[in-house]
């Protein structure tokens, strides 16, 4: 595979993982059980991390991605910053998509 294809797959996996994480958090936020939300969010994150992290690293959060770029240092800053920007944009898109899906699911259950 080419470098561009691998980067595209990483961005796709990060978007999917972030969408699953926010879907779990938003769907569990309407429960009255105080332990349900952290448990559901943890299970969703664990499932996404186990399945998607071998390819993408499993950040699923723009702050974590930025932290990794800072930790890498100046050695490859320009190329890392460009790729990290693509990953963070994918994570934002995935987050918006996850919230959108959870809103549709809540609307269907309340109808």
Describe the protein:
The radius of gyration is 16 Å and the shape is elongated. The longest helix is centred in the last third of the chain and has 34 residues, at 77-110. The chain contains four helices and no strands. The protein has helices at residues 3-28, 36-56, 62-72, 77-110. With 111 residues, the protein is mainly α.
Helix-and-strand structural type: mainly alpha
Tell me how many strands there are: 0
Largest sheet: none
- The arrangement of helices and strands along the chain is HHHH
Q: How many helix segments?
A: 4
Estimate the strand proportion: under 5%
The backbone outline, from C-alpha atoms, is: elongated
Instruction: Report the uncertain regions.
Output: none
Task: Show the helix and strand layout.
Layout: H1 3-28, H2 36-56, H3 62-72, H4 77-110
Helix pairs in contact: 1-2, 1-4, 3-4
Summarize the structure.
The protein is 83% helix and 0% strand. By secondary structure, the chain is an all-alpha fold.
Essential attributes:
single chain, 111 residues, mainly alpha
